[in-house]
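Slack export, channel: ligand-projects

TW: morning all. Re-posting the request from yesterday since it got buried. We need the structure predicted with the small molecule present, not the apo form. The ligand is flavin mononucleotide; the SMILES is in the block with the sequence. No rush, but it would help planning for next week.
GE: picking it up
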Amino acid sequence: MKILVAYASKSGTTAKCAKMLAEYLSGTELVDLTKKTPNLDNYDLIVIGSSIRMGYLHKAAGVFINEHRQQLLKKKTAFFFCSGFVNDMEQLIKENLPDEVAEKAIIIDSFGGELNIEKQKGIDKFVAKMIAQKVSKQQQLMPRIYPERIKLFAVKLLA
Ligand SMILES: Cc1cc2nc3c(=O)[nH]c(=O)nc-3n(C[C@H](O)[C@H](O)[C@H](O)COP(=O)(O)O)c2cc1C
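GE: finished. pasting the full token output, ligand included:
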């Protein structure tokens, strides 16, 4: 089975998670959607990963999904998000994936995220600091990657 893991990342966490996922799926091709547009005809299973900022997908992932909606509906698909918070999946899916694409996906999950303030620039840095302050004030845990979710995602994909 030919597998594509296509991802869009702003500060590297989604790229890192895409590589972690690909390690479980032998022969997978990894494509950075901010640099290249893959030809979906070449794959049997398509996984698309994106970072989440202000509730929305990375632009490159959002545009790719919308422009390839018809092709995606004809393939096995799965989606993962890298988001600081993993408990609002329903809302994230509703806001970011066309209903028919989401309904057909084998699995959609968040792998968590990282809040690297020093890697952010401009307004993103400001927002990242605000998120960190809010998390600490509410005594919540800082965002982190959940490797066990990545493993389970891979297991479900290959089942
Ligand atoms: C400016 C900014 C906005 C963010 N907005 C959200 C958000 O709306 N929801 C969320 O769960 N996480 C949010 N996060 C956390 C990111 O999803 C997390 O940092 C993720 O790992 C970023 O992935 P990337 O490094 O691939 O860009 C935000 C982070 C930043 C810096």
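GE: first-pass observations. The mean pLDDT is 96. The chain has one domain: 3-115+144-158.
TW: perfect, thank you
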